[in-house]
Design goal:
globular; 19 helices; 16 strands; four-stranded antiparallel β-sheet; alpha/beta; six-stranded mixed β-sheet; about 550 residues
């Protein structure tokens, strides 16, 4: 058993992560089995394990960086790595909340890991987690975290670190035991809250790391058949939202405040955690595409994960109906490319975006009972939504994937599979589109102010994700700069769509630039034909 330290130093943090991962590994199946809230999808234990696994890996990376030296990492470096690792690796509702709990603790423990700071850290963690949840519910992990913080604060000021952790652990255990009486769905199922159970396990590991001993206990097993109906709609997979949407988001604080409001209107179980420009977003929603689109409007979403809560049920009741994809394209070259892939196309001529009636006609021409609509233009969002609604009144099932550029549409079409269920296909296409950043080059028509400065008539504008990011004097140089900026955030595949008058030599030059500067990044080139932009760029 570890010696009892006076401070939670870097070694103790490393030990904590290791013990928590080991304990969750033992209990993950049992915790999965008691997972009935907010959705009975049986993955809370697994999500917590994967979240802590990411936290532990981040701490190990900090230690690895010190292997050649004679000192261990600073405690602040260890707790910050733990919190960051949990944030970027958080899975599910429970994992996302745990990441915020660890982040709240780290914000205080980075100053000191003594007993006084640990009391404050547990309080900060509980408060931060509650603020991250759009609609806090008692009888959940939030209640357990608050009880742990209350118990820690109640300890005498002269007590040591181990005593504070032990009090928090016992307070959490008592609160966990009371959760079935606070949340009706837990009482009906005869189980405690799964997320709360996971937090007790993590606190038990912390107690062991500081020299204490967690009480031996087993996760209370769930009945063989859990009720999936009742007063709490969240626990009913048929009554609640269809999808769980999670992504990391690079965005400023003010944009995230707007994002919370929009996602809260779209779905439920909303948790947004993080800060300092990096966030982990979790929401349950019927419109997965709109949830991703909200992230695109707020900043740059990536590592997008979309899970259908009833995928197995859908596969078991698959209806073999005909399906089609309707895609709006900016040039005749892409129209031919998409048609070869089996899509029905609508050509958006320069300065003449298609009307909703034109999109409805294309949906009808597809002669399918199920249609995926790719507008490929942010300005067409409302027009496409109106067309989809009209087609639905005619008995056609339409899903609108909110693609904002042609390269996102290409990415979505590339993963389309008519042989799988409609919902699964839409999820895959939405994920592919959301994982694709887009850019285009345009020629400035007049002097004007842009996000990149003042441009003059004739300048080449490099627009990334809809905003002017680069002002250049020629197409090749501007394109190289745009590519460098996009690939600085990572990427695996570059898509180039050349306009009608752009020579093939530009594609060769840009492909060579990518190949020489970014190993393992592939490039594909398409001819767009007559299109407004001389060059379209996508980075997946």
């Amino acid at each position: 058993m570890p010696q009892s330290p006076d401070d939670l130093d870097a070694v103790a943090v490393r030990t904590w992560c290791s013990l928590a991962l080991e304990a969750l590994g033992r209990e993950r199946t049992a915790i999965d089995a008691i997972n009935v809230y907010p959705v009975a999808d049986g993955d809370t234990g697994t999500n917590l394990y994967l979240t802590v696994e990411s936290a532990a890996a981040a701490v190990e990376a900090v230690f690895a960086a010190h292997e050649t030296g004679t000192t261990v990492p600073a405690p602040a470096d260890a707790v910050r790595a733990m919190a960051h690792g949990a944030l970027i690796g958080a899975r599910g509702n429970s994992g996302t909340i745990l990441a915020q709990l660890l982040r709240g603790m780290a914000s205080v423990l980075a100053e000191s890991g003594d007993a006084h700071h640990l009391r404050a850290a547990l309080t900060e963690a509980a408060d931060a987690a509650r603020l991250a949840v759009a609609h806090p519910v008692e009888g959940t992990v939030l209640t357990v975290a608050a009880a742990a913080a209350d118990a820690a604060r109640a300890t005498d000021g002269s007590t040591g670190l181990k005593d504070v952790v032990e009090a928090a652990y016992e307070g959490a255990r008592a609160a966990l035991a009371a959760t079935p009486g606070q949340l009706a769905v837990l009482g009906r199922a005869g189980v405690v809250d799964a997320g709360g159970q996971g937090l007790v396990t993590v606190l038990g590991a912390l107690l062991e790391a500081v020299g204490g001993r967690a009480r031996a206990h087993a996760v209370r097993p769930a009945p063989e058949v859990l009720p999936l109906t009742g007063d709490c709609g969240d626990a009913d997979p048929d009554g609640g939202p269809a999808f769980e949407v999670i992504y990391l988001l690079e965005a400023p604080d003010e944009a995230v405040a707007r994002l919370r409001s929009r996602l809260d209107a779209l779905g439920e179980s909303l948790v947004v955690v993080g800060g300092d420009g990096l966030w982990n977003v979790h929401v349950h929603a019927d419109d997965a595409g709109a949830a991703v689109e909200a992230g695109v409007e707020a900043g740059r979403p990536y590592r997008i994960r979309i899970t259908h809560f009833a995928a197995d049920r859908i596969r078991a009741h698959r209806d073999p109906v005909q399906r089609a994809v309707v895609v709006v394209v900016p040039g005749d070259g892409l129209s031919a490319l998409c048609a070869e892939a089996g899509a029905t196309t609508v050509l958006a001529r320069p300065g003449e975006p298609p009307a909703s009636g034109e999109l409805v006609d294309a949906i009808r021409r597809a002669h399918a009972r199920e249609v995926v609509l790719l507008p490929n233009d942010a300005q067409l969002r409302h027009t496409a939504a109106a067309a989809a609604e009209q087609a639905r009144t005619e008995g056609i099932r339409v899903a609108l994937v909110p693609t904002r550029a042609a390269v996102q549409g290409i990415a979505a079409l590339a993963v389309h599979e008519a042989g799988r269920s409609f919902d699964e296909d839409v999820v895959a296409m939405t994920s592919a589109a959301g994982a694709t950043r887009y850019a285009e080059l345009a020629v400035a028509e007049r002097q004007s102010w842009t996000m990149a400065g003042i441009c003059q008539a004739g300048d080449i504008l490099g627009m990334i994700d809809g905003d002017v990011a680069v002002i250049g004097g020629d197409v090749p140089g501007t394109a190289r700069t745009v590519l460098d900026r996009m690939l600085s955030a990572g990427g695996e595949l570059v898509t180039l769509v050349l306009g009608e008058d752009v020579p093939d030599s530009l594609a060769d030059e840009l492909s060579a630039h990518v190949r020489e500067g970014y190993l393992a990044v592939d490039t594909v080139v398409y001819r767009g034909g007559h299109q407004a932009a001389p060059l379209l760029i996508g980075v997946e």
